[in-house]
Batch of 2 targets.
Target 1
Amino acid sequence: MQTDESGDRDDLQGLVEAARDGSRTAFDELVRRTYVDTYTLAVRLTGNEEDARDVVQEVYLRAWKGLQRFRGDAQFSTWMYRITANTSYTHMQKRRRQRTTNIDDIEEPTEIRLEASPDAMAESAAGRAELAEAVQRLPETLRQIVILKDVYGLPHEAIAEELGISVAAAKVRLHRGRKKLRDLLDDGEVKAHAV
Amino acid sequence: MQCDEVALLIPSSLDDDQPVPLPVQTHVESCLRCQAELARYKRMLRGLQLLRTQLLEPAPGLLGLTLSAIGDASEQHAIRSLLNKRKVAYVGAISGAVAAAGAAAAIIAVQRSRRRAAAALATT
């Protein structure tokens, strides 16, 4: 999905149109070009690779079945992000029903040690890795919103629709998510200095 | 406005579509502590935006699995639509046969009743 933003958007659009006309070859090529990006988003939303793999397959099945409904007024990447968000959300809901333990409890941070301060997060690759780790430590409901809004740039309305919540709730969660992330980074900084 | 109150509002004031309340703006302009806090949030957001360009490499085989899942779904869809078409054809054929039999029965009934009427007229 990154590719359509870096120059060959027309090429991707051509593939979308061909796939919409029923070409499996064109759709397979679309999958080849976008599945790494879809997988990355799925890992970030679900928090683990196993679930992400299931989500990726489901996303492309939904995309294949629903391609006729893609009007092309949004970017194909944005459409795929929305399907991935919705699929991850429903997948994790199913997962939660299957488990007796609370997934949020499992993912609660045990200890975060940051080598860089929050100020330096954006400046180095290592800092970004620390930031990515801190994002994964967010509770699931907050993490989804922070990722979809602040990493992938989806509008509040789209996020609310895909996660089945109100726009107001999406905004509140984003506020809490950013605050929590900031606290996690600060907390890590304190621990790192204490070591 | 106090720094603590402003700090609570900063996370929501980072979006372009959200207008920053004037009291917050005024406070931040004159408060170094809150300016630093806002700058840290903005750096965090820049870092988050950069995460989009960091792709995670899936385990080998995911592409093949995904493509074959789509292939299976397409086959099932094709079989289902073929069966549906056949079903429509069978239903059409059966309804046609029933309609033809009904029409034939009606014609026979009419002919019989005419014959009976003619026979009755002949005897009188």
Note: Residues 89-124 of chain B form one domain.
Target 2
Amino acid sequence: MSSVLPHLPALQVVVPLFGAVIAAFLRRGAIAFVVALAVTWLMPVIAATMLWQVIETGPISYAMGGWEPPWGIEYRVDLLSAFVLLLVSAVAAAIMPFARQSVKLEIDESREAWFYCMYLLCLTGLLGITITGDAFNAFVFLEVSSLSSYVMIANGLDRRALLAAFQYLVMGTVGATFYVIGVGFLYLLTGSLNFVDIADRLANVGPEQFSAMVAALAFVSAGVGIKLALFPLHAWLPNAYAFAPSFATAFLAASATKVAVYLIIRLYYSVFGGAIDYAALPISEVIIVLSVAAMFIASAIAVFENNLKRMLAYSSVAQIGYVTLGIGLANQAGLTGGIAHLFNHAVMKGALFVALGCVFFRVGSCMLDEVTGLGRRMPITMAAFAIAGLGLIGTPGTVGFISKWYLAQGALDSGSWLLVFAIVASSVISVVYIGRVVEVVWFREPTSKAVIEASDPPLSMLLPLIALTAAVVYFGIETSASAGLASRAAEILTGALATGVPPPGAPQ
Amino acid sequence: MTPEALVIAALAIPFVGAALIPLFTNNPNARETVTLVTAALLFIIVVAIAGSLSDGAQLQAVGIDVFAGIAFAFRVEPLGMLFALVASSLWIVNSIYSIGYMRAGDEPRQTTYYVCFAIAVGSAIGIAFAQNLFTLFLFYEALTISTYPLVTHKRDAEAMRSGRLYLLLLLGTSMALLLPAIFATFALAGTLDFKAGGILAGTASGATLALLLFLYVFGIGKAAVMPVHSWLPAAMVAPTPVSALLHAVAVVKAGVFTILKVMVYVFGIDLLQELSATDIFLYVAALTVLLASLIAMTQNNLKRRLAYSTVSQLSYIVVGALLATQLGVIGGAMQIAMHAFGKITLFFCAGAIYVAAHKVEVSELDGLGRVMPITFGAFLIGALSIIGLPPFGGLWSKWFLLLGALEAQHIAILVVLVISSLLNIAYLLPIPFRGFFGTAPEGSPQATGGIQEAPLPCLIALSVTALGCLLLFFFAEPLHALAAAIPLR
């Protein structure tokens, strides 16, 4: 065991990568599923072990291939990356059992193994972005995860999935290009690609090159902004989520945007944070305005959506607004709320999309007017939907409340009562779109034959749903694992800000 | 059992009942037995808690820390005790009534009905025993959500429309106003615990506290202070037992209870007296008392008339809280109990009239009292108690409220309370008078003898609560003792 421990950072990425290769050689979907399941369930074990190590002994630095940083690629696990690794891998592990039946129904048998291959590649990319300490390596993993997710989305049953995937491909490529241009600027400025090294060298960059630094910041912001669907760069997301296979939607909604958010936090706080005084730039204001716009506009659009997957997709755009709001607030409480909401939102959206996957599995549709009266027929599924929906609203006793509480505190610390009201007022809109579904599903009589004949899905789909829904409630009461860790990570991150000289021991 | 265990049991029992009820969907008798046993057990335990509280000690039950400074915790104090006693005792009566009403009407979805009812009562108990604003808020929202299926019980277009209004107004105000208020309280005071004398004194300027007061008074939508009252008449589409227990007792009383709690334990009456803004909200509440009474006079639909009467009577309690004197608080607290017994009787009677004669309009009641004497007799008693005439319990709460207004030297409030009582007479008493002395229209069922009294469970229930109105006049002392024991400083 002790010989494995030092190599955990590499294994976190290499294992799913090899899993993907194995899945690619398999012809039977069932066997590929077993491979994917085994790999996915191993991931949170590795991530949790590393998180424990980080808490015990501080950040882990791993020199890939023995090439020391800053020349070689460094894998770096600090509190924030360990938290996101665990979040992504744990939610993926919770959703995974749901994949078998759902994929069997929605993907052509000959392509099932390929689909699992793509899923594992995507997981590789997402975990890679989170664990790497190298700006260019992050770009590579960004492309790995993006390309594989285009393929997953294009596999949707509806022919419109092709268009959605193409749309995402165009937007995603623009985003990646912008990111890599920004990294290019950084390389020109510092001669380095290692995050820690860049941060060190940026602090010594002369004022004559300040505008180049700002240009780099602008490029990476726009690039990653597309990936995380920051309003108004979110146009790719609703269709992609709506037409992708159910499993892909649940997985991507719970993980992909979260990792992009992680990347932007890393860049803002750990890379640029020490060199640029954000008070001198309107960046905080821009992010806050866009976040608030997302919270209101995207929620308002969700109210008028008939396709439930699209509705939840717009809700995701709005919820990402809460996360970026926390980033924009840039204080301890606000950032805690933002990071905690990464986790909380992943759990809620995972549950909601899995519930919709179950609905599609039984009814063959996710249109609101075709699921009338489904509550009686699929009581467990729809009860889970309602509970997770309460989480989205931010009802106390659910995870949504915790993040909003911290965000409101952050808004108050930055002296803005208006933002506090924006946070709660936008929650009221989510009452409308969740309430609308609950009313149609629970309080109307079934009309269509498909609904009348429906019943709760098999246990392999139900258990992930129950687990995620239980998490929505559990982490709404016991918050030391989510908000507690987020708070510690936020403390380290904000500590490295503004002054230009990070405090000793702060991982950058 | 230790007192702490009793509190936990009281909180758990309704939810356990709610979980058991669906198991007996196919056996209505067993199902209703579960409801009755649950209700009885709950009442016994609440009484036991009251017994152990009489030593003057406040019970602290265990809680869980959710995050820094915020706990999910419970504590029993006199005001919460009073509310819990009212809610749990009337749940038994109401369950008996429900059985008669729901079966006579052959209502669909009865299992859902009883489950939601149990959850709603459980939430009310949670509100009563909450140790801090966070816990209270949690159950406050749970109460809204659990009563939504009851409001929309009929599932027709009107019920769904009313349900939407109900949900949006109650959840909306609580999210958009109450939650920021709670948040601001935490930011200012650093705690959300209810403390004798309040936690806000000396933490902020008068303007900030005035804003906070605004957020609380209108954010607690369940208290139905105008203009946040329109959900209550809308909720009357629900079956009558729901209107009776929830929209005359549990839900609306949870609202005014929260207002009292906030005024006494968060602001503290000393702070309220200093604040100049208190008077503004006092007059808003007084205006609600008057306006709602006036609107009630124009309503021909019996349940809607009672609903507006409730809006008016609730604001009595808000007035009591905002008078910020001990007598005002006592009057407000007693009004929670007195109005509960009076109004539930009226709703029981309205439901009995609907079940027996299918009448919902006041103008159709002529002569009906002579064929349904028990129902109309009980209605008369309930009405007299609401008006505040002896020998019925309603007198006492009005009495203390008047004294409170005098003590605070708010003569205008005194006048409003007196006028409102006259208005009560004008819109309530014509109903039994029409019943007893009105001439039944030619060929109507009450003239031809096609109508008899409602089913026995309904009659038992409405007689019990009418008797309660009477007993509360003669044996008001325990209630008064509880209200007087509310620690103000």
Note: Residues 499-508 of chain A have pLDDT under 50 and may be disordered.
